[in-house]
Design goal:
FliS_sf; cilium; mainly alpha; 0% strand; 82 residues; flagellum; cell projection; 72% helix; Flagellar protein FliS
Length: 82
Amino acid sequence: MDHDQEKDLADNLNELYQYMMRRLTRGNFYNEKDPLNEVIRMLTELKEAFDRATEANSLELETKKAKSEPQKKGSDKVSLAI
């Protein structure tokens, strides 16, 4: 991630990852499952959020591309709803 363009997001993700590392270290050191399960939940939610953002970005790019492409020959026909 470009820290110059998305500084707040990059900083927040960095803090989140550091927190997860502390939880994983604790779970490993004390042989506890709860911290590990917490990190799994957090990563799952983060992945789902990235998936949604990626999908939304793809749709936006497709829309922009479709609007910028010249109309194809024969597409100047008008259809009337009856």
